[in-house]
Structure formats: C-alpha cells, structure tokens
Design goal:
It comes from Metabacillus rhizolycopersici. This is BH0509 family protein. This protein has 48 residues and is mainly alpha-helical. The protein has three helices and no strands. The termini are far apart.
C-alpha cells in the first residue's frame, strides 16, 4: 500500500473513532486495509 493510501485510510479510521493513534501506528498495512474495508466498504448484503 502506498503511503498516501495508508494516510487516507488511517484518517478515516481515526475520524470514525474506532481506534486511537497508538493502536493504528502498530497496525500493519493489511490490518489497516481490513478495518477500512470492514467499516467503510458497502456490500450488496447491506441493502437486503
């Protein structure tokens, strides 16, 4: 993941107040991608 993409996803997670800065700084790129997907990506099942 590029640094710019990481910063964007970290910013979203911090605004959602799911994690604090210390927790996010210890996460790997795949963990950040997973939590960003979990909280921000829509699924077709969300609309059923």
């Amino acid at each position: 993941m590029s640094q710019l993409a990481r910063e964007f996803k970290v910013k979203d997670l911090l605004e959602k107040q799911k994690f604090n800065q210390k927790e996010i700084s210890e996460m790997t790129d795949p963990q950040i991608e997973y939590y960003h997907w979990l909280y921000f990506e829509d699924s077709v099942y969300d609309y059923m």
